[in-house]
């Protein structure tokens, strides 16, 4: 009889822990979704390690002009282009 009581208690504790864990995960996901929605409404740009595409293209065009003029070597141009692209 003692073994059944221990098994039942363990099952109840395990079930409760699972329910609480699921509820915490659900609350965190909901809070994250609300924060993301608020940032989109406020017009906040999403954070990114890469520069925006337009800025990168403008930078590459500028670098290409410097390369064409002979101010940058092939190696310098390639390194600066990779940096502009975030590579």
UniProtKB/TrEMBL annotation:
It holds the Pfam family SHOCT. Residues 59-85 form the SHOCT domain. This is Unannotated protein.
């Amino acid at each position: 009889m003692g073994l059944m009581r221990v098994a039942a208690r363990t099952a109840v504790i395990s079930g409760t822990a699972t329910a609480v864990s699921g509820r915490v995960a659900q609350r965190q996901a909901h809070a994250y979704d609300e924060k993301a929605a608020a940032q989109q409404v406020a017009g906040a740009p999403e954070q990114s390690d890469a520069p925006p595409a337009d800025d990168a293209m403008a930078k590459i065009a500028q670098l290409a002009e410097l390369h064409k003029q002979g101010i940058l070597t092939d190696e310098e141009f390639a390194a600066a282009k990779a940096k502009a692209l975030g590579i």
